[in-house]
Design a protein that fits this description.
The chain is mostly helical. It has one domain. The protein contains five helices and two strands. Strands 1-2 form a two-stranded antiparallel ribbon. Helix 1 crosses helix 2, helix 1 crosses helix 5 and helix 4 crosses helix 5.
Length: 117
Amino acid sequence: MRHLLNWVLSALAVWVVARLIPGFHVSGPLAALIAALAIGFINATLGAFLKIITFPLTLLTLGIFWFVINALMLELASKIVRGFQVDSFAAAFLGAIVLSLVNMFFRWLVGTSRQRS
């Protein structure tokens, strides 16, 4: 159940980012769900590998390089998922930053509401 909630929250975050960042497009809720699934899968496989390999560069840039890797993963997901499109690397980079923040906020909201009940 927790994975399903995380998936829906990630799809909602993708939808929000598409509304905030020019050049970041999602055609509908189904595309957002599939995009969230693809982004999660890509980040768990290729993204994890790239983050391990580029760890020294990430240390040198104080973690900012991870946003570059996340932007590349977003661009790759946009090539795979129909209905999800990222127009440029700049849109992907800004989208990666905002997506991280929105995901963090949604997870905080769910964690806070779960503690109250």
